[in-house]
Write a structure and sequence with these properties.
Blueprint: E1 5-6, H1 9-14, H2 24-37, E2 42-48, E3 54-59, H3 66-71, E4 77-78, H4 84-87, H5 99-105, E5 108-115, E6 118-125, E7 128-135, E8 140-146, H6 153-158, H7 162-179, E9 184-189, E10 192-196, H8 203-211, H9 213-216, E11 219-225, E12 229-236, E13 248-252, E14 255-257, H10 260-269, E15 282-288, E16 293-298, E17 301-306, H11 309-324, E18 394-399, E19 403-408, E20 411-416, H12 417-434, E21 440-450, H13 453-461, H14 463-468, E22 472-475, E23 480-487, H15 495-509, H16 514-528, H17 539-550, E24 565-569, H18 570-576
Parallel strand pairs: 2-9, 13-15
Antiparallel strand pairs: 1-4, 2-3, 3-8, 5-6, 5-8, 6-7, 9-10, 11-12, 12-15, 13-14, 16-17, 18-19, 19-20, 20-24, 21-23, 22-23
Bound molecules: zinc ion (2 copies).
One zinc ion is lined by residues 418, 422, 527, 530.
């Protein structure tokens, strides 16, 4: 027994193992991590009916001798952890010696493995070893788990639908591929290929395999470091966002981890560049001395704590903000179809199961025009950030009092009047609110506002929020307040309505930071005082608005993250009218 060590009991007890074999994804995870531990550079996962009928993992790793092969199915056998310290070190992937034994207990396992041209074949059924014989001299290991749960029918019933099973496995494999771009992966269900990576160590190519070309083209490479952390990876342009947080992938020392604070920081860094409830696609590789982290090893999740969290979050925030705040971000009117994450295509590509040389056959990955987003902003220290990120553009007219049409030599722009005005208001209000001495204006006719009794109780508790904003507010009779002064930045039209809105924010939020409160007030006020649809504007008015917008720090989105402007390049226009390739004079 050269490689596999029997874990001692103390170590085993330290692991919050629990029974792991609940989902096909857990089985896949265990088998694939074994392949990675065996040093495989190619791993093929073949499923029949989302793994419920069969899971087969083929690798080109170092394989096992006969003793190890048999021992690998006994409890507390592991080749992965040799000391307690390893538990805190993320360099070893696996941590449970029990999993293979648990899997074997509820399925039929067929293991073919080979070391130095000596092959071993083990068959186990419901935990009982049926056969140990000489096998083929083929490099690596092939393990097939079938009839999973056949002897525990109740459990099988509880399994989610096949599609959910497959989605779980796919999600797991995607993350594994992102954290191991140097390994060639293939995931196939029945006859359809779900994921295929080329093992070229190019992270962007893995992103392309998972999300498709249109997303890969909109990824920006990022990197940064401080005394404790080194980060590299890719973040999506703000126009790419998804409804799920699941596409923010954090990898620490080669292992995918979950950390809510990191996710929140990433999402906050995009604030107002995209809707807050939509999430970017990011893959961040963090390298850190293992002594700085505390890993809570639980079979079902990888939770991680950093002893120097603040500096890490600051680094992540700065890295993202500096990348997205200095570039032109006008989305092109995309003429291609929106790329929706596709369900696995069936019978699309077939893979030969027994290709001799390599576990996975060669496939070429077209990468042309993919690296166009490698940074255009120089990281040079003396790089001067232009104060106008949006190009000059000239208004031509107004559609339905809602959209401004603009042009310049590059093409045509459509601007959402409300969104543009909202952005201008928002940046102006925020600036005014941030001043140390906010000016206030006395009202000639104070405004009284009547509230319901419960609203009044909450509001009375938080009256200081009004005072901080430089309102002068007093209690006024039963359940009423009177507003005598208002901050000068707030437009006086519809003042009562504005104050009502602020009261609503206070009542709804209850628990919040001043920062978040101010942010909300600025956003709501900017919307309230932005032009409504069906407004008449002269070309002059439009020109002023565009100039105002161009002076904004982020002229590309309204404070809610909607785009203000969409671009139709001359080429797009020609394509739309089928002019390209034709004689344009026709
Ligand atoms: Zn609005
Ligand atoms: Zn908006």
């Amino acid at each position: 027994m050269a490689i596999i060590k029997v874990m001692d009991e103390i170590l085993a007890n330290k692991i919050a193992a629990g029974e792991v074999v609940e989902k096909c994804a857990s089985v896949v995870k265990e088998l694939v991590e074994n392949s990675i531990d065996a040093g495989a550079s190619e791993i093929k996962v073949l499923l029949v009916d989302a793994g419920t009928r069969e899971i087969k993992v083929v690798d080109n790793g170092k394989g096992m001798d006969k003793d190890d092969a048999v021992l690998s199915f006994s409890r507390h056998a592991t080749s992965k952890i040799s000391s307690e310290d390893d538990l805190y070190n993320l360099n070893t992937l696996g941590f449970r010696g029990e999993a293979l034994a648990s899997i074997a207990a509820v399925s039929r396992v067929d293991l073919k493995t080979c070391v130095k041209d000596v092959g071993t074949h083990v068959i186990i059924d419901g935990g009982k070893i049926l056969e140990v014989s000489k096998g083929d001299a083929r490099k690596g290991t092939v393990i097939t788990v079938s009839e999973l749960f056949y002897n525990t029918p109740a459990r099988l019933k509880h399994m989610k639908s096949l599609y959910t099973e497959l989605a779980n496995i796919t999600d797991y494999m995607n993350k594994l591929a992102l954290s191991h771009p140097g390994i060639r992966f293939l995931l196939q269900n029945n006859d359809s290929v779900i994921l295929r990576t080329d093992g070229s160590s190019n992270l962007l190519k893995v992103i392309q395999s998972i999300y498709g070309n249109s997303v890969a083209r909109k990824m920006i490479s990022v990197s940064g470091e401080n005394a404790d952390y080194e980060i590299s990876g890719y973040i999506s342009l703000p126009e790419v966002h998804r409804s799920s947080r699941n596409n923010m992938v954090t990898i620490v020392n080669g292992r995918v981890v979950k950390n809510l604070e990191i996710n929140r920081t990433i999402n906050d860094a995009y604030h107002s560049y995209k809707p807050d409830n939509r999430y970017p696609v990011t893959v961040l590789n963090i390298t850190v001395d293992p002594s700085v982290i505390d890993v809570n090893i639980h079979p079902t999740k990888m939770d991680i704590k950093f002893s120097k969290m603040d500096t890490l979050l600051e680094l992540i925030n700065d890295m993202i903000v500096s990348k997205i705040s200095n570039r032109e971000l006008i989305p092109s009117a995309s003429l291609e179809k929106e790329e929706v994450k596709e369900r696995p295509k069936y019978a699309e590509q077939f893979i030969k199961l027994d290709s001799k040389e390599s576990v996975i056959e060669e496939v070429s990955f077209p990468l042309d025009e993919l690296i166009i987003n490698e940074d255009i902003v120089s990281d040079n220290a003396d790089y001067v950030v232009s104060d106008k990120l949006m190009p000059e553009m000239y208004p031509v007219g107004l559609v339905h009092g809602t959209y401004i049409i603009l042009e310049n030599e590059n093409g045509m722009y459509l601007m959402d009047l409300h969104a543009a005005k909202e952005r201008c208001n928002y940046e102006r209000f925020k600036k005014e609110m941030g001043k140390p001495n906010i000016a206030s204006t006395a009202l000639l006719f104070p405004v009284t506002i009547e509230l319901s009794n419960d609203e009044y109780i909450i509001l009375k508790e938080h009256l200081n929020l009004f005072t901080d904003l430089k309102f002068k507010v007093e209690e006024f009779g039963i359940n009423s307040i009177i507003v005598k002064e208002h901050p000068t930045w707030l437009p006086t039209n519809n003042l009562e309505d504005s104050i009502r809105t602020i009261i609503d924010v206070i009542i709804k939020e209850r628990e919040f930071s001043i920062e978040k409160f101010n942010e909300k007030v600025a956003t709501m006020m900017s919307c309230k005082h932005a032009v409504r649809a069906n407004t008449h504007l002269t070309i002059e008015d439009m020109r002023d608005l565009v100039e105002d917008l161009r002076c904004c720090k982020n002229p590309f989105n309204c404070p809610h993250g909607r785009p203000t402007t969409i671009f139709y390049s001359n080429y797009d226009l020609e394509k739309l009218f089928k002019r390209s390739g034709f004689d344009t004079k026709k």
